[in-house]
Specification:
single chain; alpha/beta; about 25% helix; globular
């Protein structure tokens, strides 16, 4: 199509993953070398320590000029790989990418910045990398600095910037130097809430006023719903859906729901700095009927969280937060540390009960956190996803026109009109 600025045709990306064994002693090293030599003779050059991994498989789509397109999917779905191919950072193994116009990408904090240079120097450096000449950068310089809110630190080397300052300046450069295509990864999540809203407003302005194209990747589905006119859903490197935000995100969240009553949390990714002396091991619920992790409006939810303690004794507190499918937090709470008295080492079950679930029909995500009295903690994002359905009685109390996540109790009384006297 003539107005397509991005066209991907059967794009695939293949990696070879090496599984190298770590040897602690000289004896282990020599033995492993001998085994590798024997395998080489037996398998005629095969490499059993290598694993094939397809980050993308036959992904095809077109994006028109002026569209704001979101990309959603779980971690490891292939989103970042797709953006790196579109940004010309890496080449596809198979397939073809066609791009029209200049592309500006913001994939990591400080992309294109040199840590030893000042913020002022990096604006010119990054602008040149994006294909702008010096006069263009000078014309936009004041707007960039004002948007990034780094005037006081403009002549400070960016290696001394916080991650939030990095993002503010990097986004300001990419957004103000008028690329035909702007690619933004989850990096905006590093900024504070006010700056995130500022960036979302700038992205809307870019697409609506100047007709430029934006490709936006985020786990904050609420931002994707509000910002994008179209959403791509990737799963295990394949394009699962391409359509309106409401339809695609609804399909994504329903498919991502757990299918087993017991969810294993032991292998989930944790934030940096968590050492694992206390650990969230699993999460389960006690459903009397129906499919796993589907509840009804007004129902009590009884959960069992299994934890592992490596050093006794501990006083623990358990916390949870509930999010809508669009990433909006609707509830959070934490038990006092003293509520769970001295817990010895070993594996234990903690009971969590959510009373009177008053959530509108839809998909929800549960985050879990565990903390000890001496500051050790564990945290699992998206520990479980569940769906709230309606039964006949609940359906009579509200209609599909309700858009709020939480439905509060309320009553309405019809009163007779007061009579007026002349």
């Amino acid at each position: 199509m003539s107005d397509a600025v991005i066209r991907a045709t059967s794009v695939s990306k293949h990696y070879l993953i090496r599984h190298e064994r770590t040897n602690d002693t000289l004896r282990d090293t020599l033995a492993d070398g001998a085994r590798s030599l024997l395998r080489r003779f037996r398998h005629s050059g095969a490499h059993p320590s290598r694993e094939e991994f397809w980050a993308l498989r036959d992904v095809s789509f077109e994006i028109k000029r002026g569209e704001v397109v979101g990309v959603v999917g779980r971690n490891g779905a292939g989103k970042s790989t797709l953006l790196k191919i579109l940004s010309r950072i890496t080449e596809p193994t198979r397939g073809r990418i066609e791009l029209r116009g200049r592309v500006a990408s913001l994939l990591e904090v400080g992309t294109g910045f040199h840590p030893e240079l000042t913020g002022r120097d990096n604006v010119f450096l990054n602008g040149a990398i994006l294909g702008m000449n010096r006069s263009e950068i000078r014309r936009k310089f004041d707007e960039i600095v004002a948007f990034a809110e780094v005037e006081r630190f403009l002549d400070t080397p960016v290696k001394r910037y916080s991650s939030g300052m990095y993002v503010r300046l990097a986004f300001a450069v990419a957004a103000h130097l008028e690329p035909e295509v702007l690619i933004v990864d989850e990096v905006l999540a590093v900024g504070d809430a006010a700056f995130q809203q500022k960036c979302l407003g700038k992205i809307k302005e870019i697409s609506s006023s100047s007709g430029r194209t934006v490709l936006f990747v985020s786990h904050n589905l609420d931002s994707v719903l509000r910002l994008c006119s179209r959403v791509l859903w990737l799963q295990q490197g394949q394009l699962q859906a391409d359509g309106t935000p409401q339809a695609t995100i609804g399909l994504y969240t329903r498919t991502s729901r757990n299918t087993a009553e017991v969810v294993d949390l032991s292998g989930r990714k944790r934030p940096e700095g968590i050492v694992g002396r206390i650990r969230l091991a699993s999460l389960s619920h006690h459903a009397s009927q129906g499919a796993p992790w589907i509840f009804t409006f007004g129902q009590d939810i009884a959960l069992t969280c299994t934890v592992r303690i490596s050093r006794p004794p501990q006083q623990l507190s358990l916390a949870y937060a509930l999010f809508t499918s669009s990433g909006f937090e609707i509830a959070s709470t934490r038990t006092p540390v003293a509520a769970l008295a001295q817990v010895p080492a070993g594996e234990h079950a903690l009971a969590l009960r959510i009373h009177g679930l008053r959530l509108a029909p839809g998909s929800y995500t549960l985050n879990l956190g565990l903390r000890s009295e001496n500051g050790e903690e564990d945290f699992v994002a998206e520990a479980a996803t569940f769906e709230v359905a309606t039964d006949a009685q609940a359906a009579a109390n509200f209609t599909d026109t309700i858009r709020a996540a939480v439905i509060p109790e309320f009553s309405v009384t019809l009163q007779s009109p007061t009579s007026s006297h002349a």
